[in-house]
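Researcher: Quick test of sequence recovery. Tokens follow.
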């Protein structure tokens, strides 16, 4: 691995988990370089040798020495470096456990099931890997995850966001999971039957709508994903809004 880049650089491909780090950087008002790459290039030897050893997105470089290729690790690293308090929950407080729980399950338990729904959606019908079992596992796991989140938001919790009245990085982690889930299950262009109903999760649905109404969410999950491949200097306050989003907003 010889890749070393100066400054803070985030590698992004459209709708990748990089949206988590990008949204956090926007909230923290930290300038960075965005490198938009083609999904079809991330398994190239050159890319894997120098940028992403696993051939995945996102990747973050910082100060020449820091190289991270796990979205949650990026978010934690950026918070440690740039946050003076907002967007996280202090260690040693009771809410810290909730913060850690929802932060981590967004990429573990949540994504494990949501990724199955996504695969079921994008695998062509002719591919033998597109099985009813894949869909069923995705549905069962996602339902259990959503129900737990619904129960938490409606009975064990107070506030607009998972850790109370302030948006935190746990919500930012969840944004990708809920976004991919919505993309995988809703809209006229899904090949999966409608397997999840928003009305079964009213409190979660209100939370998800609240999140999607934030300008930070819209900037980082909207038109930024329409950018041509290339390198961009992102300054605090820059907006990518204007062309709308290609994704459905409800599941
Ligand atoms: N747990 C990793 C997962 C990274 C990952 O799987 N990224 C996806 C896109 S969001 C990817 O690169 N997929 C391409 C592939 O698996 O070939 C993270 O959170 O960064």
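Model:
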């Amino acid at each position: 691995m010889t890749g070393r880049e100066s400054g803070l650089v985030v590698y992004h491909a459209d709708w990748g988990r990089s949206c988590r780090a990008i949204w956090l950087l926007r909230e923290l008002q930290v300038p960075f370089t965005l490198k938009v790459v083609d999904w079809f290039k991330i398994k190239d030897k050159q890319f894997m040798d120098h940028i992403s050893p696993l051939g995945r997105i996102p990747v973050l470089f910082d100060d020449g020495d820091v190289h991270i290729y796990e979205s949650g690790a990026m978010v934690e690293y950026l918070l440690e470096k740039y946050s003076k308090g907002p967007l996280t929950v202090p260690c040693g407080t009771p809410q810290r456990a909730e913060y850690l729980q929802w932060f981590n399950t967004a990429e573990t338990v949540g994504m494990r099931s949501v990724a199955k729904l996504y695969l079921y959606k994008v695998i062509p019908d002719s591919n033998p890997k597109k099985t009813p079992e894949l869909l069923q596992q995705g549905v069962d796991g996602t339902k259990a995850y959503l129900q737990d989140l619904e129960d938490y938001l409606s009975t064990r919790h107070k506030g607009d966001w998972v850790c109370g009245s302030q948006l935190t990085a746990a919500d930012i982690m969840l944004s990708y999971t809920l976004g991919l889930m919505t993309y995988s299950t809703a809209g006229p262009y899904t090949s999966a039957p409608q397997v999840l109903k928003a009305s079964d999760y009213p409190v979660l649905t209100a939370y998800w709508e609240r999140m999607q109404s934030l300008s930070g969410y819209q900037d980082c999950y909207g038109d930024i994903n329409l950018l041509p491949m290339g390198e961009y200097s992102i300054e605090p306050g820059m907006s990518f809004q204007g062309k709308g989003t290609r994704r459905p907003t409800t599941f």
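Residues 16-17, 55-58, 70-72, 107 surround glutathione (CB under 6 Å).
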